[in-house]
Amino acid sequence: MAGIVSAETPPPRLSLPLNTTTTTSPDPTTTTNNKPESSSLPRRTPSPSPSRKKKPSPSTPSNGLLDSGLDNPDLGPFLLKLARDAIASGDGPNKALDYALRASKSFELRANNNDSPADDGGDQASLDLAMSLHVLAAIYSSLGRFEEAIPVLERAIGVVDAAKGTEQALARFSGCMQLGDTWSMIGKIEKSIGCYEKGLRIQIDALGESDPRVAETCRYLAEAHVQAMQFDEAEKLCKQTLEIHRAHSAPASLEEAADRRLMALICEAKGDYEAALEHLVLASMVMIANGQENEVAAIDVGIGNIYLSLCRFDEAVFSYQKALTVFKSSKGENHPSVASVYIRLADLYYKTGKLRESKSYCENGLRIYNKPVPGTTQEDIASGLSEIAAVYESINEPEEALKLLAKAMKSLEDKAGQQSTIAGIEARMGVMYYVIGRYADALGSFENAVAKLRAIGERKSAFFGVLLNQMGLACVHLFKIDEAAELFEEARGILEQECGPCHQDTLGVYSNLAATYDAMGRIDDAIEILEYVLKLREEKLGTANPDFDDEKNRLTELLKEAGRSRNRKAKSLENLIDPTSKRTKKEVNKRWGGVGKSRLGIA
Questions:
Q1: Alpha carbon distances (Å) from 542 to 496, 511, 536, 566, 580
Q2: Which pLDDT score, from 0 to 100, does residue 562 have?
Q3: C-alpha to C-alpha distance for 590 and 546, rounded to whole angstroms
C-alpha cells in the first residue's frame, strides 16, 4: 500500500531586531529620517495628533447649530479642529468621531459645490475633504472599527486626482499608505502590500525616483514584504533605499545604518549569513560613531544570531554577553530586551549540548515575562513565550512548550490584527500534539488555524499549503480518509502554484495523495500520480534520492495489484496534476502503518 509523507524540516526562523517598535507610514511631505526599525508585528495606523496641543474651547456649540450650516465654508475646518482638540485633550475618541463625521460632511458639501474642472477652489476643497476623511478613518481605527475605516479611506483616495499636481498626488499617496496600514491591522498582508505599492508608484511619479521621501517608502514596503516572507522583493526595495540614502545623506548616516540592519535581516532569512554579518558590522560602526549604545547592543544580538547560524559559538556567546551587559545597565534586569537575550543564550546552549544551562536561561526569561515591567506590550510577551516554547520543544519537553504556547495565544486573543500570529501558534501546537500522538487535539488546532487564515484571506501561501498537508495527516490517523484526500488535493494545488512540482514539499503531498487514493480504492489515480512523481525524479531531480527507490517499489506493488506494467511514456495528468504549475518542502515517505514524526516549522 502507498505511504504517507509528513513535513520534517521547518522553514528558517527570522531573527528580528530587538527594538520592535511599531512603525507608521512615511510622511509624504517631510524628509524626517528618524524612522523606526523593521518590526515583526503588524503595522498600526497612526492615531491623528495635532502639531500643537491646545485646550478645547470652554464653550462648544450645540450639535444643532453645527449641523444647521454644514455648507458654511468655515465650518469644516472648525469641526476638524474640534475633533483634533478632543483627541489631544483626552475627551475620548467618540466625541472626536462625532466632530470628524460632521467635518467630512461639510467638506463634501463644499467639494460638490465647487466641482468644476477649471475651479482651483474645487481642487482645494477636494484636498480638505481627503484630509478630513484621513482623520475620520484614523479615529475609526483607534476605536478598533477597521471595517468602517476602509471605505472611508477608499473614498479619500477617490476624491483627489494625482494628475492635478503634487499636492493632490501626495494626498492620494497618504490615503494609499493609511489604507495599507488598516489592511495590515486586520491581518490582510497581501492587500496591505498592494496599497503600499500603489502609493509608492504615485509618490515616485510626483517626486521622482531619487527623492529621500521615496527611500522611506521603499524601506516601509520592504518591511511589509519581510512580514509576508517575500524576501526577493524586500531585497530589491532595500537596495533602492540604500542607493538613495547614499546619494542624499552624509557618509555613515543613521539612515544607512537602518537600511543595513533591514538588509541583514533579509540576507539572514535567505541563508546568506556572511552578507548579513557584513551589513550588521557596518551598521554597528555607524551606531558607535553616533553614540547609540542601546542600538549597538541590539545589533550585537543580531551579530550573535549570525554567528550561531554559522556555528561560531564562542563568538556568538561574546556578542550576546556584550548586549546583555548593556541592556541590564541601561534598561534594567527585568526588561524584555534582557529576556530576549536570555532566550538566544538558551538556544545556543541547547545547540552545544549544555541542556542544564539552556533550561536555566529559559527560566530566567520566563521570570521576566511572567512579571513584566510597565510598558511591556502583550505582543512582546507572546513573542517571548513562543520563543521559549521553541527551546522546550527542542529539548523534548513538549508539554511545557504547549503550556507556554497556550499562554502566548491567550495574551493575543483581544488584540486587533493578530489573527495570523494566533493561527501560527495554533499550527505549532497542532504539530506538537501530532508528534506526541494526540491526533484529535492536533486536528482541532489545525482546524482553528486554517479557519483563521481563511478568514483573513491567506489561502494561497506555501505555509498554508504545508498546514493543509499536516491537517490531512492528522485526519489519516483518525481514519477520516475522505477528508484527508480533500485536504491533500487543496494542498497540492497551492504548493504547485507557489513552489513548483519539483519541490520536496510538493512531492511529499503527491505521495500522501497517492496513498490516500490507494486507501480509497482509486488505484488508477494513485498509479498516475506515482508515475508522474517518478518521471519528475528521473528527468529533473535524479535517482540518488532514497525516496526514489521507495516510490518505485510502491508503484510496482500497485501495478501488480492492477495487473498492469509501468507506462514510461510522457503521460498527461490533466485531471490530477498540472505539470506547468508550482509547489513546496522536504518530506520523508512512510508506509500507512508507520506514519513518522511530523514537524511544521512556524516561527
A1: 20, 17, 8, 19, 19
A2: 64
A3: 12
Label residue 357 exposed, middle or buried (CB < 10 Å: 0-12, 13-18, 19+). Answer: middle
Average pLDDT over residues 296-308: 96
Alpha carbon distances (Å) from 321 to 303, 334, 338: 12, 16, 10
CB within 8 Å of 480: residues ≥ 6 apart: none
CB pairs under 8 A, 24+ apart, for 228-231? 228/189, 228/190, 228/193, 229/269, 229/461, 229/463, 230/193, 231/266, 231/269, 231/270
Q: Are 106 and 76 in contact (CB under 8 A)?
A: yes
Q: Which residues contact 55 (CB under 8 A, 6 or more apart)?
A: 85, 89
pLDDT of residue 70: 62
**DSSP conformational letter for 592:** G
Helix (H) or strand (E) holding 5: strand 4-7
Grid cell locating 222 = 520592504
Q: Is 57 exposed, middle or buried (0-12, 13-18, 19+ CB in 10 A)?
A: exposed
For residue 355, what are the contacts with CB-CB under 8 A and spacing of at least 6? 349, 395
Measured distance CA(535)–CA(346) in Å, rounded: 45
Question: 120 is written with which cell numbers?
Answer: 482651483
Find all residues with CB under 8 Å of 73, minimum gap 6, and list them. Answer: 110
Give the CA count within 13 Å in the CB-facing half-sphere of 93: 14
Residues forming a β-bridge with 5? 589
Burial 102-116 (b: 16+ CB within 10 A, else e): bbbbbbbbbbeebee
The pLDDT assigned to 485 comes to: 93
What cell does 196 get?
503600499
Phi, psi of 183 (to 5 degrees): -60, -40
Cβ count within 10 A of residue 564: 12
> C-alpha grid cell for residue 452?
483563521
Q: Is the pLDDT of residue 228 over 50?
A: yes
Total residue count of the chain as it appears in this document:
603
Instruction: Give DSSP secondary structure letters for 526-577.
Output: HHHHHHHHHHHIIIII-S-SHHHHHHHHHHHHHHHHHT-----S----TTT-
Task: Band the pLDDT of 206: cuts 50, 70, 90.
Answer: very high
Instruction: Read off the C-alpha cell for 55.
Output: 485646550
Most confident of 78-87, 339-348, 549-558, 567-576: 339-348
H helix and E strand count, the chain:
24, 2
Q: SS3 letters for 206-235?
A: HHCCCCHHHHHHHHHHHHHHHHCCCHHHHH
- Judged by phi (left if over 0) then psi (alpha if -120 to 50, else beta), residue 216 lies in alpha
Give the whole-angstrom CA distance, residue 520 versus residue 83.
64
